[in-house]
Design a protein that fits this description.
about 250 residues, four-stranded antiparallel sheet
Length: about 250
């Protein structure tokens, strides 16, 4: 899965999001009628036509965009770099049965998610369309810091936000890290979505609007303009960084 294809893979002059299927078995599979969607309420977003056979140990690449006149399969929807879920559905005649899925959080430009090993673990990859997945080296979480926040936003930055900085030159996994405005009473108020990443020497911005259903870059709490606390803790709730602040200016 490649949800932010800036320059990693060119498809006839375009750079669509990418979905790759792999048949790990030895026998060919008839894909006719199988469906792909990022919305479980719309399972019929894309259905394979008749005559599509995926051979054993073979890959099939699809463009996650609207049909644009270029060759190949176009599923009719894009993938959000701020978090999404991709579903592989059984044929409609068998009901809306999910055969496979991958939920993911914040994605990085030109880096993909790939499946590995018997456990089926999803890990950050260097894109290799049509070939075996290649792991992307990750840095350490130890240097992550709360870098900037806005608790009384006005235009042009109307939304309050909280920003993390990664000083490591390599990307770092953010999934499971907990952010909170109440470090003592509710240290795990917001857990960053699994399969979320921050770029090397980069920033990750979370909108503090109390609406986590809006995407993996939205926090489940707001920032108090009159003063408060912010904390970042590891998944085991060991401290990573914390800040106290007084009343903020607009």
């Amino acid at each position: 899965v490649l949800a932010r294809n800036d320059a990693a893979f060119e498809h006839h002059g375009t750079f669509p999001d990418l979905i790759e299927l792999f048949n790990e078995g030895g026998e060919p599979v008839d894909l006719a009628g199988f469906r792909l969607t990022n919305d479980p309420m719309d399972p019929d977003s894309f259905a394979f036509p008749s005559g599509v056979i995926l051979g054993g140990q073979q890959h099939l690449l699809l463009s996650a965009n609207a049909p644009d006149g270029t060759p190949g399969f176009h599923v009719g929807f894009t993938l959000s770099q701020n978090g999404d879920t991709l579903y592989l559905m059984d044929r409609a005649a068998h009901g809306n049965v999910v055969l496979d899925s991958v939920p993911f959080g914040l994605q990085l430009a030109d880096l993909s998610l790939g499946r590995f090993g018997g456990s089926g673990a999803w890990l950050l990859c260097q894109p290799t369309p049509g070939e075996a997945n290649v792991l992307r080296e990750l840095g350490t979480r130890a240097g992550l810091r709360l870098n900037e926040w806005l608790a009384s936003g006005t235009l042009p930055f109307a939304e309050d936000f909280l920003e993390i900085y990664n000083p490591d030159p390599e990307p770092v996994a953010l999934g499971g890290i907990c952010l909170s405005d109440c470090p003592i009473g509710a240290p795990s108020r917001h857990a960053i979505a699994p399969l979320s990443f921050i770029a090397g020497n980069g920033h990750a911005v979370f909108l503090a609007d109390g609406d986590p259903d809006a995407g993996a870059n939205h926090l489940s709490f707001r920032l108090a303009a009159g003063g408060g606390e912010l904390s970042m803790k590891a998944p085991d709730l060991s401290p990573m960084d914390q800040v106290w602040y007084a009343a903020q200016l607009p």
